[in-house]
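Notes to self after the call with IL:
- keep both proteins in one doc
- input above output, always
- annotate only the second one for now

Protein 1:
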Amino acid sequence: MDVEIVAAGDAEYPIVINLARFYMYDMAEHGGWPFEPNGDFDVGDTFDPYWGRPRASRAWPGDWQGLPFLACIDGHPAGFALVVRMNEASPRYDMGEFFVARQYRRHGAGRRMATALFDRFAGEWIIRQLLTNRAAHTFWRRIIADYTGGKFTETQEHFAEYGGKEFIVQRFDSRH
């Protein structure tokens, strides 16, 4: 299985948005999101800031920078990772959104994507999962523990910017 992770520019934006519908569907059970009246999941402007586009529904802090990536497996779109560089002065990153299509899960694609990004962006990382998303907890704990040799913290925190929802949160530093 050949996994390629490419920086997603304007040409990849529609591909990521198409994949995002499947991501939203997967996350709907944890986020409580209903289908639109037409039976679709409308991504709207949710991912626009990752491409430097304004988002009317909720603006980002001025010092955040989006870093979007598309994952392809054997030449086919297979997922995406949307990273936020939270501060230009000190390297701090947030794994804003992370998706691997179901047919590529449990084959190492997610691990390869995550560790490639941790290596590419050396610094402090924050990764959060909704409380009910137990599969994500298991995935991220394993990936981060292996990557850091167990040197990470995990807490439960509420985030005002996400409607006060509570998350499982891992923090670690990818600088070796």
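Protein 2 (the one to annotate):
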Amino acid sequence: MAEAYDGIVGKRRAIDAQLVVIGSSAGGIEALTRVIASLPADFPAPIVIAQHLDPRRPSHLSEILGRHSAMPIRIVESEAALQDSTVFVVPSNKLVEIADGHLRLRPAAPGQVSPSVDLLLETAAEAFGAGVTAVILTGSGSDGSAGAWHVKQAGGTVIIENPATALFPSMPRSISPSLVDATADLDSIGTVLVDLVVAARPDPDGPEGLAFSALLARIRERSGIDFGSYKSATIVRRLRGRMVATGHTSVADYARSIEADGEEYARLISSLLIKVTEFFRDPKVFEYLREKTLPMLIDEARVHDRQLRVWSAGCSTGEEAYSLAISVLRPPGRTPMSSTSGSLRPTSTRPPSRSRDAASTRPPRCGTCRRTSAPDTSARPSMATRSRNRCGRR
């Protein structure tokens, strides 16, 4: 597999490759031993382990894992090329990053958590995209919670050890439930990984393939969402994640179950949809917008005493909408719009969802007639105007 990452071609191939990253802390040695012991010798992906260890004491993690693993165990010294069916152990007091199919170590700052699961997951998500599977095991603290967010943003999969049975539940419990694809007891995690990584590599064949195609067709008929242009490996991997989470072993059985379970159907759709978003996601576009387009629109609105309204199509959790708002309020070399505008109220044309971001997108309502209030964006509105609602009542 190492050759797959050489040069530009290798970088493209890394997107379709798979990687498993396991993070743990207190109680992690026993947990790691049990997970690694349950994996086959031909496991078709590299496994990178980031275990918090006391740097003042020599580590015997690799020797302990080696006695129980069917795969070779490698300690990363300074740099190592990733290989399938190999377990890589990161030493204590080192930070590890992934780039171009290689693990690279660097010293940790004094007092810094090392190896950092967050840093490892963030760089893994950047390098492998939807091919990353993150596993958070027992441990104290919250290392891995930020990295799990990056994994999900890249389309990857997040598995946590069941906090109810974990020796130290803080680390798995710190992962937001909205990011978790599967929660499993310790002795089941190896099976979950095999189901996800091994079964998700090719497109389903035979009856499973027919059931898979029928499921996608049913989703398109029911929701109007066509996943035909998505990478099939990504869809299969996420579908397998929901099947594992709900205890279904066949696509046909799972498809029948979601017909009667609207909540699980919604979870599946949410898992399949790629919600890649961040503030100022495309810097060049926003740079042109702020330097060229917005100053012209703002000047024109001021000259003609008009409102300036900006829409973001498909704002996901709001980063794009607020990026536009920030660009409008702080254009380069211009008086900020906030000095002359009345208010900024992002609204949504979609029905409010149950997500934690939904409340910030709901337009204000009149306390008297309950009709939606119109945002006032005129220059320095009077007190009477500011207190007047759409219905005309004060």
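Annotation: Residues 1-15, 337-343, 348-394 have pLDDT under 50 and may be disordered. Strands lie at 19-24, 47-51, 73-75, 79-81, 87-89, 94-99, 102-107, 132-136, 157-161, 182-184.
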